[in-house]
Amino acid sequence: MEMTDQYKDAYLREAKQYLETMNNSLIKLEKAPGDLTLFGPMLHACHTYKSISGIARHFMTSTLCHGIEDVLVSIKKKKLKVNACASLIFECFDVLEANLKAVSQDKEEQDTSKLIKKLQAIASSHEPRTTNHEPLSTIQDSPGAVNEPAMLEKIQSIEVKVERLDLLMRLSEELLINKLGLDRIKEDLKNPELSNAIDTLSRLVSELQFNIMQSRTVPLNFVFNRFPRFVRDLAEHEKKQISFEMDGGDIELDRSIVEAMNEPMVHLVRNAIDHGIEIPKEREKMKKPPQAVLSLSAKRTRGFAVIEISDDGKGIDWQEIEKKTSKPTLISSHPTREDLVNVLFSGVSTTKEVTQLSGRGFGLNIVKKRVESLGGSVKVESQPLKGTKFILEIPLTLAVFKVLFVNVYTKSYAIPLANVERLIHVKKQDIKGMMNYEAIVFEGEDIPITRLNDLFRLPRLDLSSQPIVIVRKDEERFGLAVDDLGQTQEIVLKPLRLAKEGKYFTGCTILGSGEVSLVLDVANLILSKRKNLSHKS
Hints:
By secondary structure, the protein is of the alpha+beta class. The protein has helices spanning 5-31, 39-55, 59-76, 82-104, 113-125, 162-189, 192-216, 221-224, 227-237, 255-276, 280-285, 318-324, 337-344, 362-373, 452-455, 522-536; strands spanning 217-219, 241-247, 252-254, 291-301, 304-311, 377-383, 387-395, 400-408, 411-416, 420-427, 432-433, 438-442, 445-451, 465-473, 476-481, 484-492, 505-510, 516-520. It folds into four domains: 5-125, HPT domain (Four Helix Bundle (Hemerythrin (Met), subunit A), Up-down Bundle); 162-216, Orthogonal Bundle (Helix Hairpins); 220-395, Heat Shock Protein 90, CATH 3.30.565.10; 400-536, CATH 2.40.50.180. The protein contains 16 helices and 18 strands.
């Protein structure tokens, strides 16, 4: 199995660090053989180097690391002397370095069998040996020759502190804001030379932002790869048999999003194992295979990543959810499935006892809050006796994204372009006044509309043709009536510190004029409209 370039680079970067630690530690150990504190970093580096090489299927390197590890343990236990083994170990380090170079060039590793036999012999004999061992021709040209440092290879990658990447991102955001100001000046002055210069600057700022954002992205596997062991341990603890499947871990997201998604996924996987999946005897009674299937997958769609956690367990007992709730305000006398889903995420638990894994009902509430704080959404699909699927939709990045600007009276608002389906104009007489709301007919469907003037308590303008933005969240469509449609452009999303009706906004952005424009939270707008309609009906 060949490694992708991405994982090969990660392997080479880590391996070089471990090899450097091993070299430096052995140099210090030669000078201070009795300093046992030097063994910790060296043994840790050697053991981890062995592990990652085995995973990457570089078995010559992995086996050589194992032999080095055995000798180091013998030295630590004072069964061997450092000075009797140091030259042999350094020779092994040289071969490890040569193998790293071979891997970087997609060549075969060197045969390490001769060195491994020497290491095994010296580790098993527990006798001090002289340093007159047979040198490998690839490492030394003649006995007693000193190896000169190899020519410095071209540096392909370097480590950069996350704080520095965050600083670069903030600086690029400030560049974008200032560029928007220049765009406004360009439109006012109409100077061809200035316009060309600003257009060139716009292109360079966009390229800069793209590359900085790319440098901040990491694959979801950084989180996904923690789960096979996690699932195995929990399944054993709960005495359940689980086949765990993963897919889509190569999808890359902004580092901050990947980090933030770790906790929600842990809660959902734990919830599936503790509440959803049955023990083998129960599954056999229901004529299911004794081994359950738990799946964690990801895919990309329209500027979002969709993460799904599904199981083939007993499903959610919606009647039990309705019985358990002690908050009558959460559900009506005739609750819909949507009402019960809201109850499920509000912190209500259906389990009969609090276990070490779960039971207090906090998990799903944490999941919902964390995902929505990222500008995402959570859905749940469940069928009795067949299983449950949680669907998390999250943006690929938090910093820069495209919006449509709209004007409402004298104020400007931004709507995320990922939620915009169509822009239309309708005549006043085509807006139907229903009993409790207004609606338009679009593509044969009645679509409720909300006038942002009314929502934000701004005066209405007398318009003969009403601009309406059709927005969509999942399968639900909704109309936003505005006074005027503006341009689409990239913006820098800033956290919202203070605003009236704050639940309707996901953040704000600074315009080129220096003014602040609020960014609408389409998911909450639709949810609010839906609640109003259900209460009035």
